[in-house]
Design brief:
Length: 385
C-alpha cells in the first residue's frame, strides 16, 4: 500500500509511527463510504459536505478532496476564512458560507466565488449592492429560520420575501435552506413543526433547490431530505440519535503506554488524590491528556481499550497524561510501549462523548494537533473537474 501524501509529508518530517506518543488515524475511505450511504437514503437527494471547523477537526483538505472524489460538489463552511481555504483546495467546488454575509466582506465572497447563506433583509440589501456593482446576477442561498432562532430570516422577514419577490432582484437564488434544532431526538415535536413551517417556503420558491436536513435530519426520513442534505457529523462517523449507528467510524485515537506500575493498597493516583487503591493494583500511564482533547470529565467513568481488554481510568486526567487501572487484565496482556485505544472501534466516538457528558461533535473538534496524524485511503489530489 502506498503512503498517502499527508503521511509521506509526516514521514519526510521524521514521523515514525513507532515512536509517536499519540496517533490520530483518519480513515478517508470510511468518510467516502459514509458519503455514499447518505446519498442512498435521501430519496434521490444530493449530499453536501459540511467541512466547517477544519472538517470537524479531521483536516479540511484531505476530507474535502476525498468527498469531491466521491461525487460531492456542494460544500458548507462557516466563514470566509474557511471558504478561502476550501477554494484553494477545491477550485471547482460550490461553496456556501453559513454565517451569511458579514458586513464589508462582499468583495471577498464575489472574488472567490463564495455563496453567502443570506439570513436577514440587511444581508439581502448588501448583496444586491454587490450585484449592482457587478452588473450581473450573483448566487446566494436564502436561509430561513423555522425554529432554531439562530441564523436565518424570521417569520416577518420570510413573509415579506415571499410577498415581494422584487426584494431579491438580481440575486441568483441557488438554494433555500433551514436547519433543524432537534434532529438528534426523532420524537421531538419541533422536528415536524419545523418541517411544516418549511413546506410553504419551499412552495413559494418551487423552482429553487431546497436543503433542510443535517445528518440527523436525513435519518428522520426521506420527507426531511428535499434536494440537498447538509452532512457533517454523519460523514465523520457519528450519530447522535437513538438506534444503531449507520455510519462507519472514521477516527482512531491511540496513545502509548508509558509505564506500568504496581502500587500497594492505600496509595492514591493523580492530582487531587481522588483515586485510591483499595488493594494492591497495577496501573498504566498513558501519553494523552486534556491538552490532546481527551476530556477531563472522562475521569468519572471513562475507559480505554488496551491489550484486548477494557481498562477504567484511575484518577484525574492531567494535561498530558492519564492513568488507567490494569489490575483486571491477565498477566502479560500489555507491555510498556503498547498502544491503547482512546477512541476507535472498541470505544466509539459517541461512547466517549456520552461518558464525557458532551456530544461527539465537541470531542472531534477538541482533538488537538499534538497527536501525529495518519490518513488512510481517500484521495488527496485536486480532482479533475
Ligand atoms: C453544522 C451544520 C450542519 C451539519 O450538521 P451535522 O449534524 O454535523 O450533519 C448543517 N447545516 C448547518 C446550517 C450547520 O451549521
Amino acid at each position: 500500500m502506498s503512503l498517502p501524501e499527508f503521511f509521506r509529508d509526516e514521514a519526510a518530517a521524521g514521523f515514525d509511527p513507532a515512536s509517536a506518543s499519540t496517533i490520530l488515524t483518519v480513515d478517508l475511505d470510511a468518510i467516502a463510504a459514509n458519503y455514499r450511504h447518505l446519498r442512498s437514503i435521501g430519496a434521490g437527494a444530493d449530499v453536501a459536505g459540511v467541512v466547517k471547523a477544519d472538517a470537524y477537526g479531521l483536516g479540511l483538505v484531505p476530507v474535502a478532496r476525498t468527498l469531491a472524489h466521491a461525487g460531492c460538489t456542494n460544500f458548507f463552511v462557516t466563514d470566509t476564512d474557511e471558504g478561502l481555504a476550501l477554494r484553494a483546495a477545491l477550485p471547482g467546488a460550490t461553496i456556501y458560507v453559513t454565517n451569511g454575509l458579514t458586513p464589508g466582506a462582499a468583495a471577498l465572497y464575489r472574488g472567490h466565488g463564495l455563496r453567502p447563506c443570506l439570513g436577514s433583509l440587511a444581508e439581502v440589501e448588501e448583496w444586491r449592492t454587490v450585484v449592482r456593482h457587478a452588473g450581473m446576477a450573483l448566487p446566494a442561498a436564502l436561509h430561513f429560520d423555522t425554529g432554531l432562532s439562530r441564523l436565518g430570516f424570521d417569520e416577518t422577514e420570510t413573509a415579506r420575501l415571499i410577498a415581494e419577490p422584487a426584494l431579491l432582484a438580481g440575486i441568483d437564488v441557488t438554494l433555500i435552506m433551514s436547519h433543524l434544532a432537534c434532529s438528534d431526538e426523532p420524537e421531538h415535536p419541533l422536528n415536524a413543526l419545523q418541517l411544516a413551517r418549511f413546506r410553504p417556503i419551499r412552495k413559494a420558491f418551487a423552482s429553487t433547490p431546497a436543503s433542510f436536513a443535517n445528518s440527523g435530519g436525513a435519518l428522520l426520513g426521506p420527507d426531511y431530505c428535499f434536494d440537498l442534505i447538509r452532512s457533517g457529523y454523519g460523514l465523520y462517523g457519528g450519530t447522535s440519535g437513538p438506534g444503531p449507528n449507520p455510519f462507519r467510524a472514521t477516527v482512531r485515537l491511540e496513545t502509548r503506554l508509558l509505564q506500568i506500575r504496581n502500587v500497594p493498597a492505600g496509595v492514591t493516583a493523580g492530582y487531587g488524590a481522588t483515586w485510591k487503591a483499595e488493594a494492591p493494583r497495577r496501573l498504566g500511564v498513558l501519553a494523552t491528556g486534556y491538552a490532546d482533547g481527551y476530556f477531563r470529565s472522562l475521569a468519572a467513568n471513562g475507559r480505554v481499550y488496551v491489550g484486548g481488554h477494557y481498562a477504567p481510568i484511575a484518577g484525574r486526567v492531567s494535561m498530558d497524561l492519564l492513568t488507567i487501572d490494569l489490575t483486571s487484565l491477565p498477566e502479560g496482556a500489555v507491555k510498556r510501549g503498547d498502544l491503547a485505544e482512546l477512541i476507535g472501534p472498541h470505544v466509539t466516538l459517541d461512547e466517549v462523548a456520552d461518558r464525557a457528558g458532551t456530544i461527539g461533535y465537541e470531542v472531534l473538534t477538541s482533538l488537538g494537533d499534538r497527536a501525529k496524524r495518519l490518513y488512510t485511503g481517500g484521495h488527496l489530489a485536486v480532482p479533475e473537474s
